[in-house]
Write a structure and sequence with these properties.
Structural class: mainly alpha
Largest sheet: none
Number of domains: 1
Shape: globular
Order of helices and strands: HHHH
Number of strands: 0
Number of helices: 4
Low-confidence stretches: none
Mean pLDDT: 87
Strand content: under 5%
Helix content: over 70%
Radius of gyration: 19 Å
Oligomer: single chain
Length: 139
């Protein structure tokens, strides 16, 4: 039964990797298309900030997908979850949210919540780093 569960896990993770690679490829094409479209519509060399933030948001979203792929590859290779990769990916996804936030339409409670999440992830990253340092010093 354990062998069957292992095969099932590898199959599901493999399928998720294929779907994620397709999503990353589509997202990359979307970033390129959006950038080319924005450049064609510009009359002068003064970029509209909203268009730039839209492209940056798409760009970071693709980078989050690449990080998720890295997590899945690590899981498939070592059969363990790398906590540092998870925290880094969560921090990157949160940065994507910060980049795309419209400060004029966002409530103060949302801003406090996002700031709290950033602090919590920074603390988690520091704790994971200290844990990894102590493991390396024991070896």
């Amino acid at each position: 039964m354990d062998k069957l569960a292992g095969l099932f896990e590898r199959g599901v993770v493999g399928l998720l990797m294929v779907l994620l690679m397709a999503t990353i490829a589509f997202g990359t094409a979307l970033v390129a298309w959006s950038l080319v479209d924005d450049l064609r519509s510009v009359r002068e060399f003064a970029a509209e900030p909203k268009a730039l933030f839209d492209v940056f948001g798409l760009f970071v979203a693709v980078l989050v997908g690449v990080e998720l792929l890295k997590i899945l590859r690590h899981l498939l290779a070592s059969h363990e979850v790398n906590t540092a990769l998870i925290v880094q990916t969560a921090l990157m996804a949160l940065c994507n949210k910060v980049i795309t936030l419209n400060l004029y339409e966002t409530s103060w409670t949302t801003l406090v919540g996002v700031a709290s999440l950033i602090l919590a992830l920074a603390a988690a990253m520091a704790a994971v780093g200290r844990m990894q340092d102590s493991e390396h010093s024991r070896k």
